Amino acid sequence: MCRLISFFHNPNTGSIKVWNLTGHSETQEHLSLGEKHWREGHYLPDDTIECRVLDTDKYDQNHCDERMRGKFPTFALFFNWCLSKDHEMGGNLNLRGCDLKGIKLPESVGGGLDLSGCDLKGIKLPESVGGYLDLSGCDLKGIKLPESMGGYLYLSGCDLKGIKLPESMGGYLDLSGCDLKGIKLPESVGGGLDLSGCDLKGIKLPESVGGGLDLRGCDLKGIKLLEKFKHKTIR
């Protein structure tokens, strides 16, 4: 289910503040927003708006909700505004299962990005993702992966035809259940590597894997294992 957007609003002036879209506490601390003037708010994917207020505020919630809707009639418009270059963003972006129609992703994401189960048709992924990237269950046709990823890459169950994987991965790489025909694995994976359930015929494993190696359900005939795994049980 798609997550909501968390924001702060000033009920007296109508000003809006965002930083971490997944919660209020980090935004409040990072932007030094005092409780005297700022109130919590949520914008849901079904275009529902909730601007919380106190009895002592100049305007009530209904007024603040409608004022917000006047500025941002839809979730997509508000989301794109939040991710515009005018704002410094923090935290992760969780859009799991969202309808991305009208959504424009930023050029870079400092934290993680979860797009699992989304229809990515017409979507351009960020050039860099500082944290994890979860695209499990997505149709990757025509999709170009980010050039830089700081965390794990989760592509479980994806059709990788035409997909170019990074030459090196700093974190965990999950390709479980994927068709690896014609796919070149990274030369090095800093974290673990999950290839469970894959057909490894013609596949060359990375020269180095920093974490565990999961080859459950794989035919290892003709596969050259890394020295560190030759005498260990491979899960």
What does this structure look like?
- The protein is α/β, with parallel strands linked by helices and 235 residues long.
- Strand 3 and strand 4 form a beta hairpin.
- The longest helix is centred in the first third of the chain and has 11 residues.
- The mean pLDDT is 89.
Topology (SSEs and partners):
Elements: E1 5-9, E2 16-17, H1 25-31, E3 39-43, E4 49-51, H2 61-71, H3 75-82, E5 93-94, E6 108-109, E7 113-114, E8 128-129, E9 133-134, E10 148-149, E11 153-154, E12 168-169, E13 173-174, E14 188-189, E15 193-194, E16 208-209, E17 213-214
Parallel strand pairs: 5-7, 6-8, 7-9, 8-10, 9-11, 11-13, 12-14, 13-15, 14-16, 15-17
Antiparallel strand pairs: 1-2, 1-3, 3-4
Can you tell me the overall shape?
Answer: elongated
Main sheet record: 7 strands, parallel
Strand line-up of the largest beta sheet: 5-7-9-11-13-15-17
In total, how many domains does the architecture comprise? 2
| Average predicted confidence as pLDDT | 89
Radius of gyration (Å): 22 Å
Structural class: alpha/beta
Helix fraction bin: 10-25%
Please work out how many helical segments DSSP would assign: 3
Low-confidence stretches: none
Straight-line distance between termini: 31 Å
State which percent range the strand residues make up.
Answer: 15-25%
- Number-wise, the strands total 17
What sequence of helices (H) and strands (E) makes up the elements?
EEHEEHHEEEEEEEEEEEEE
